[in-house]
Amino acid sequence: MLLNVTIFLWFGAVCPWSDFVNTPDLPFGRLVLLGILILLLRRPPIIFALYRWVPRIESFREALFAGYFGPIGVSAIFYLFVTCEYLNEIDQTPGLPDSGRKEVEEMLVVVRLVVWMCVVISVIVHGITIPFIMVSSA
């Protein structure tokens, strides 16, 4: 539990909160909509399509539960840092034209904001619904 709380505190401390609303190229509403759509379309459609062939998922209700719980968190932030490091290496490439540098910088901003928004929405949605699921399963 202590490690779990520590990770969520770290998320809150390093999350680019002000960038969510201060980035003119990517409006806040579009970020939220994109985060919700990714959460809805990333895992549930695949689980619903394939649950009949997964021996551990025996009913539609179990498929609904398995499709719903696929939180986005630590691994997404890890891969975000890997991606940012790679894009920074590209940005420092000698001979890269100015237009290429501008595109790399824009991609850094967009990738960072989209991944963080997906993590924030996932933490909020899954955090809010866990008590309801625990009550209904008891």
List the helices and strands and how they pair.
Layout: H1 2-14, H2 17-22, H3 28-42, H4 44-50, H5 60-68, H6 74-91, H7 98-137
Task: Describe the protein in words.
By secondary structure, the chain is an all-alpha fold. It has one domain. The protein has helices spanning 2-14, 17-22, 28-42, 44-50, 60-68, 74-91, 98-137. The longest helix has 40 residues, at 98-137. The radius of gyration is 18 Å and the shape is elongated. The two termini are 21 Å apart. The relative contact order is 0.15. The mean pLDDT is 90.
Brief account:
With 138 residues, this protein is mainly alpha-helical. Helix content is 78%, strand content 0%.
- Give the N-terminus to C-terminus distance in angstroms: 21 Å
> Number of folding domains?
1
Alpha-carbon Rg, integer: 18 Å
Structural class: mainly alpha
Give the strand tally.
Answer: 0
- Percent in strands: under 5%
Low-confidence stretches are none
Order of helices and strands: HHHHHHH
Largest sheet properties = none
- Residue-averaged pLDDT, rounded? 90
Quick tags:
138 residues, 78% helix, elongated, mainly alpha, single chain
